[in-house]
Write a structure and sequence with these properties.
Layout: H1 2-5, H2 10-38, H3 41-58, H4 62-89
Length: about 90
């Protein structure tokens, strides 16, 4: 998504940037819900990284924003290992 933003100009860029900001805001909201349910530090860190990515994107630093989004994904993926292990421990997987 960030790669494509760099290709746009004028009104298209303005509109796409707003949509991207809305997307990040919604993503952060979903991550916050997950954190409130399971209270795992990984979700809290992912939310911080999404906010940081939004700031970088708004500051016209798309490469840095993409790096921070990758870090957020890593935090969420790490939490999945815990869930998988729990399922295995309870013979549900």
């Amino acid at each position: 998504m960030l790669d494509r933003l760099a290709e746009l100009k004028g009104d298209e860029l303005t509109g796409a940037s707003k949509m991207y900001a809305f997307f990040l805001e919604a993503l952060e909201g979903e991550i916050d819900i997950a954190y409130n349910v399971v209270r795992m530090k990984e979700f809290e860190m992912a939310g911080v990284k999404v906010r940081e990515a939004a700031d970088k994107s708004n500051s016209n630093q798309p490469d840095e924003a993409m790096k921070v989004i990758s870090e957020a994904i890593s935090h969420v993926a790490s939490s999945g290992q815990w869930a998988m292990q729990t399922l295995k421990d309870n013979n549900l997987l």
